[in-house]
Amino acid sequence: MPNDRPARHSWEIPLLVAAVVLTVVAYVAAIAALFLGVVSTWVLIVLVAPILIAVGRGQLYGSQQVNGIKMTPTQFPDGYRMVTEAAARFGMAEPPDAYVVLGNGRINAFASGHGFRRFVVVYSDLFEIGGEAREPDALAFIIGHEVGHIAAGHASYWRQLGQFAANYIPVVGSALFRSMEYTADNHGYCVRPQGARGAMGVLGAGKYLVSVVGFDELADRATTERGFFPWFVNLLSGHPVLTWRAAALRNRTRHGHLFVKPGQIYRDPLQLQYAGDPAGPVTR
Q: What is the top-level taxon of the source organism (predicted)?
């Protein structure tokens, strides 16, 4: 909740432990294969993964340094303020670097790091929702979400190396990544709870239609949409499907669903207060 410490999803650490164990097993198997003279593509990928991850992270950070527009007190000051406020809210010693990059119509943002530096990147099309005519709270939520990834340790080199094997194991890996997204959503909610609705709207309908998306209708469908394939799509996705994600942001009494869809429609009284809904809480 807004005044609480952001909660880590209950499945994140168990799934991370499973991913680390699988990564260790992969390294042991790769080293054993090398000693036995068995050299294959997967053996080489596993053995050079520490270098590839380090180089990839450095290249990604360098690209922002030379191509991104850095948020500062005088350049994108609203975004800079959102980043610093989120970092302070999470008890970080200093805010991460933050950049705006050309989106070309894409709605995206991400967090990463290199060495001791951490950074947030917001695509320009997503940054446009910060205008007063649209949903500035949604932008604050999304920035809080990305800073939350950093605060939760998701951008650590050792974390990314330890969970390396999860990238190649669909169910375990995708579930771990979904739990991390729920954790980051909890951080975004603690920064700007009233921005959760707009954030889901812009992710579902884009920057121009965000204001006409019915958040409760979206969240209700997590319960009412039935069938094998909606469940299967979520199972293989690295992000919670949007309906389940909206339902988790509305129901702050439990962690977001990873494997089984929500069983009931829930209306959080506090969320209704933020939304200015006069109808009051509804639970069915």
A: Bacteria
CA 157 vs. chain centroid, Å, equals: 17
DSSP state of 122: E
Q: What is the pLDDT of residues 107-150, one digit of tens each?
A: 899 999 999 999 999 999 887 776 665 788 999 999 999 999 99
Q: List the one residue out of 136, 59, 145, 74 whose CA is nearest residue 108.
A: 145
The DSSP letter of residue 72 is: B
Q: Tell me the domain boundaries of the chain.
A: 11-269
- Cβ contact 144:88 at 8 Å: no
Q: What are phi and psi of 122, to 5 degrees?
A: -120, 125
What's the rounded Cα separation, in Å, for the pair 34 and 152?
36
Quick: pLDDT tens for 231-256: 999 999 999 999 999 999 999 999 99
Question: Taken in order 179, 183, 185, 189, is the CA torsion positive or negative?
Answer: positive
| Two tokens, residue 199 | 């954030």
Q: Which two tokens stand for residue 151?
A: 């605060």
What's the distance, Cα to Cα, between the start and end of the chain in Å?
22
